[in-house]
Write a structure and sequence with these properties.
Length: 156
């Protein structure tokens, strides 16, 4: 079951997809597919085309909480900035300079960076493994792993 922030993130992504006119939008130059980072081409390709650096400084704890930045690709910056939209507004804005809210924002920012890394680096793996299993079941049978040497399952 999706929590509220994941639901809100999906709603924003779907709105962005609709505005881009595609359920599966993709940058025609580099293949970027996260709708948050796309216009007609992705933000990084757009920056390069304008002679700008595709690398940006991200205030991972939010500008109101800390001046510390992390350099990151512009597309990824768009993604983590979008994830900040799910933070409690009081934490993101921290109008009174509360150190507790600053710490909360720092942890939330770090979690957003981890979420990005996990999605970018490992996000494709479950679908790949599911497709591989489907293929092996068709080719070898429903117990395909029993045909392999030295493969142990948790039940063995």
């Amino acid at each position: 079951m999706m929590d509220e922030s994941e639901l809100n993130h999906q709603i924003r992504k779907n709105k962005r997809r609709r505005s881009l006119g595609s359920r599966f939008p993709k940058c025609s130059r580099c293949g970027e597919s996260n709708p948050v980072a796309l216009a007609t081409i992705c933000y990084e390709c757009q920056s390069r085309g304008q002679g700008k650096s595709p690398i940006e400084n991200n205030h991972f704890a939010g500008r109101s909480n800390d001046s510390v930045t992390v350099s990151m690709p512009g597309n990824d910056h768009r993604v983590v900035t979008d994830l900040q939209q799910d933070w409690p507004l009081e934490t993101l804005r921290n109008p009174n300079g509360s150190p507790a809210l600053k710490a909360a924002a720092s942890i939330r920012g770090f979690l957003n960076l981890l979420t990005l890394v996990i999605r970018r680096i490992l996000g494709w793996v479950p679908e790949f493994l599911e497709s591989l299993d489907e293929y092996l079941v068709r080719r070898i049978g429903p117990d395909w792993w029993k045909e392999m040497r030295n493969v142990k399952t948790k039940d063995e």
